[in-house]
Amino acid sequence: MRVVMIHALAESIPPVRLAFQDEFPDAQVINLLDEGLLIDFPGSITPNLRRRMSDLICYSQDNNADAIGLACSVYAPVVDSARELVDVPLVSSYGPVMREAVAAGPRVGVIASNAATMSDSEHYLKLAAQEAGAEISVKQRLAPDLIQALREGGQAAFERRLAEETLALAPEVDVVLLSQFSFATALEHLRQVSPVPVLSAPHSSARTLKRMLEG
How far is the first Cα of the chain from the last one, in angstroms, to the nearest whole number? Predict the structure, then answer.
């Protein structure tokens, strides 16, 4: 089964590969990268950008995709309209992980390295809760130094910092959500140290697509 993942950042490709190795190793994963989707993004989705993303989604199906996933969170709104253009499973970057977080709640902790991502995460969490008919509370942990820790100290330092944030949240929440795709590389370590479940977006997407294709 072929799964095409559409990216606007090259950095999101390794976490996706890791997630599918962990959750859906039988899938043939094709990573489709268009860095212009982010370079040309002015802060909101223009008609031209919506068309470009829709074209990539259609291109993926035309080239034998059995399922399609987005790895770029800012384009999540395109999924609703693009579902009318293809007849294979299509998921946004946030959809699967938000549904899993709501199901594991009601107290959801969110870790992000920037305020915009945190705001988007809370928005989509509340949307998923509304769709599920559930009530949730969101506890935020904003850690701007996470990417710096990765760049300066490598993966081990990055995992330590994420573990600190996770353990700070754990007493107050039922589940911790890693809001950025790049955080998925620390998931195995966090699962070993966290007393509550930890979710990553690419792992949730891989699980959801596996369920759609095999179920």
Answer: 13
Q: Identify which of 15, 56, 50 has the alpha carbon closest to the alpha carbon of residue 33.
A: 56
Per-residue pLDDT of the chain (215 residues; tens, 9 = 90+): 999 999 988 888 999 999 999 999 999 999 999 999 989 988 888 999 999 999 999 999 999 999 999 998 888 889 988 999 999 999 998 899 999 999 999 999 999 988 878 888 899 999 999 999 999 999 999 998 888 888 888 899 999 999 999 999 999 999 999 988 889 999 999 999 999 999 999 999 999 999 999 97
We report the CATH number of the domain holding residue 103 as 3.40.50.1860
Shared domain check, 122 and 85: no
Question: What is the domain extent for residue 9?
Answer: 2-92+205-214
Is the pTM for the entire model greater than 0.70? yes
* 108 and 196, same domain (yes or no): yes
* Element holding 70 (H helix, E strand): strand 67-70
